Amino acid sequence: MLKISWIVEREIAILKLIEHPHVLKLHDVYENKKYLYLVLEHVSGGELFDYLVKKGRLTPKEARKFFRQIISALDFCHSHSICHRDLKPENLLLDEKNNIRIADFGMASLQVGDSLLETSCG
């Protein structure tokens, strides 16, 4: 039987809770005795990090567009008590129209009530 880490289980559970146009979609999960397969939305534009390295400076219009999309997705996550906790350009993917998809919820956590998160990241 395949042993799945609690981090992967948590990421899958969190991704199942999120349906937002700027969060990478989890379509399905399959497993066999040896492997776990996550079927994720395909986005062809790569990481925002690589885009910034290649392009350099963003235009103000482009920066506003990315910022709005990131804030919209984070607001949605936070309204569902989900904290990403590892937001960086490498975890922001771009689709074919240069729209943001937040990815990699491996460090994410559900916040219960008004309590602070106590686990460390990194």
Automatic annotation (TrEMBL):
Keyword hit for Membrane: no
Coiled coil: none
GO biological process annotation, one example: intracellular signal transduction
Catalysis performed (reactions): L-seryl-[protein] + ATP = O-phospho-L-seryl-[protein] + ADP + H(+); L-threonyl-[protein] + ATP = O-phospho-L-threonyl-[protein] + ADP + H(+)
Enzyme Commission number(s) of this protein: 2.7.11.1
Alphabetic keyword roster: ATP-binding, Kinase, Nucleotide-binding, Serine/threonine-protein kinase, Transferase
Gene Ontology cellular-component terms listed: cytoplasm
Alphabetical list of Pfam families matching this protein: Pkinase
Domain Protein kinase: 1-122
Domain of life: Eukaryota
GO terms for MF: ATP binding; protein serine/threonine kinase activity
Name of protein: non-specific serine/threonine protein kinase
